Amino acid sequence: MKKSLKILFAIILLTLLGMFITTVYARTEIVSDGAELTAALNDAGVSVILLEAGDFLVTPSFSINRALTINTVGNADATIRRLSGNIFNVANTVGSSLTIENGPGGGSITISGNQNPGTGINLAGANSEVTIGDGVNITQFGSSGIRATSGGTVTMNGTARIHHNSSNTAGGGVAVEGGALFIMNGGSIDNNTAQSWGGGIRFHNGGTFRMYDGIVTGNISHRGGGGFSGGGSEVNRGRLYVMGGVISNNTVTGLGDPTGSSFGGGGGIFADGAAVVTVSSGRIYGNSVPYSAVGRGAGVFLNLAASLNLSGDAIIENNIGAPRGGGIHLNNVNSRLHMSGGTIRNNEATNGGGIYVLDGRIYMTGGTISGSNATEEGGGIRFHQPARITITDGVIEGNSADNGGAIFVEHTNGTIPHFIIGEEVIFRNNTARVGRYVNNLAAAANLQINPKIVTVYPHAFSNYDINVLSGNLVAIITFEVRNGARRNSCRRRSNCFRN
Questions:
Q1: Continuous segment of H or E residues that includes residue 21
Q2: Whole-model pTM?
Q3: What percent of the chain clears pLDDT 90, i.e. is strictly above it?
């Protein structure tokens, strides 16, 4: 027993001694040039580096395997620059962290790659931690500004910027994969470029991006996801949570599209594979895609089994330029939109001003689709192929199109479309400009179907609000009262219902 107590006492004593040594020998270094900075970074005893004003050219890449903070002296403006390769590699060891922010008097720290291959900050694994704060700029790197592809956590605060970086593959500004987490509390990720996916940010294969505030703007992707792009399998999916901030004026050029199949989409967000996007606040606006056959989903593009959950006071607005889906485009049978709140408004496209559903599922239980315009069909929603739409609550108002001001439904492969509108849904002030089908009969302001069956619970539709367009003379529409009191059918051309 006494021997055990002695061993325990020795362990405690050694632990306290280690803490004392660490406290005594961990020190602060003030540096004024690249050589002094290099020495301080390689000195395990230095825990804080203060940069004087100036340009710090460094040659090697630095492995950070301790807790290190880099600040400026007073309000100094400093630049850490390397001509090629990564600058900081944060090790995958417990306690390895890098914090970069300006000094108490202001100033700035710019980490620059001179537009050469390399990454500003690379996280090596799950134990790596990075924080960037006020006055920090990460810029001109040719392989992303920050890469966390094997785990680790990045936190972005204050006025930090990740800008004017590029990638020959994905994630021009930031790449988050392999269980890594990026937390954006503020700052700006802007004017980055990716040759393929995610001009601003790539969240993929288990990577998670949480946006609480800040702005993602002016980024460019040549294939998909001007602002964000994410994917991954069901067991290793990428996840994006938008709980505030702005995703604006990002662009997809379509120049990287070799086939025209599913590229050129998602000016704001491109979600692929089994990626999950959850938007509960913030704004997605002013994003664009090419006005060509590949341009789809100027705001958000959902491909394969990707899903979007829209709720709260989230807003998707003023996204333009898409032939299909100004606000949102659903592309595949397993694509999903769950809308319990939020607003999709003032978007524009040739077809599906608010939403275009090539295939997939929409479940709308709340929120508003308003003010969107299609130059052809479906101002609010254009519904196509064997997609399924269930709308049980919400408001669809003030949308416009040539045909189907609120909703246009078309089906061409002979099966019955699944389309349900609940009695709580409000349709108002939707307009259709012309009728282009079936002997120029009047176009539908609210709902247009071509052809087959729709289930509509009681609504105060105006005359001609529901058109059944088959191309010839015969189509079928079923109108049901929820309590089963009556069931009316129309088996002639459009304009069957008159209130």
A1: helix 2-25
A2: 0.86
A3: 61
